[in-house]
Write a structure and sequence with these properties.
Elements (H helix, E strand, L loop, with lengths): L2 H21 L13 E21 L2 E24 L2 E12 L2 E6 L2 E22 L2 E18 L3 E19 L4 E12 L2 E5 L2 E19 L1
Antiparallel strand pairs: 1-2, 1-10, 2-3, 3-5, 4-5, 5-6, 6-7, 7-8, 8-10, 9-10
């Protein structure tokens, strides 16, 4: 998926989200218990990542910071539980990203591509209204980054991170809800090897997502 396509789709979903939230209370069942049970969803959004870069080759070492951005998209599935005005859910997600970045270090061109990502999270929050849930997220996320060094080849590594975020879930009708969410992900440091170059990266990611959720 091209980044522009992801942006346009996200904007379209945001428009539906805004319109739907104004009328959601007219379409949903009375009571929060209608949020119980399994759900699946699709997600479109935008990723912005920064990295602390440390590199070493035959000529010395270097340290720098840089970042990149691009569209993200994926699927999710979870199971929610309500208790009075409280809500708890366990959720799994899988997706990919078009976010990338390029930098030049001592004449070498280094390109970073963010690729597949998956994770597990716990969501907890409360109902402002029967149709509106505000929640927080805490979980684990694993994301693959590929590093390419000009003239030295490429390597990819999986980074494990802690994911934390805040969101709002707006019930549009008995089965459909629309979600807006912001997350931060703090990844561990991993090493890459390309030819004689030795590099390590420690990413941090800001992730904005819009999701359409189908409940059963």
């Amino acid at each position: 998926m091209k980044p522009l396509t992801g942006y346009c789709s996200a904007l379209a979903l945001a428009a539906v989200l805004t319109t739907g939230s104004a009328h959601a209370h007219n379409h949903v069942q009375t009571g929060t218990s209608s949020w119980d049970g399994p759900y699946v969803g699709v997600t479109l959004g935008y990723t912005d990542f920064t990295m602390e870069f440390r590199g070493r080759d035959d000529f010395g070492s270097v340290r720098s910071d840089f970042g990149g951005s691009g569209a993200n998209y994926g699927i999710l599935a979870g199971w929610g539980f309500t208790h009075g005005q409280g809500y708890l859910a366990f959720e799994a997600n899988f997706g990919s990203s078009a976010a990338d970045s390029t930098m030049s270090v001592d004449g070498d061109r280094i390109k970073i591509d963010q690729e597949e990502s998956y994770g597990l999270s716990m969501l907890g929050g409360g109902f402002v209204a029967d149709w509106l849930l505000l929640y927080g997220r805490l979980g684990w996320q694993r994301t693959n980054y590929e590093a390419s060094v000009s003239g030295a080849g490429s390597d990819d590594e999986d980074f494990d991170g802690v994911r934390a975020g805040l969101g709002a879930d707006m019930r549009y009708n008995d089965n459909l809800s629309l979600r807006i969410e912001y997350n931060r992900i703090y990844y561990s440091s991993e090493r890459f090897r390309a030819g004689n170059a030795r590099t390590s990266f420690e990413p941090e990611e800001a992730r904005f997502e819009l999701s359409a959720i189908m409940r059963f």
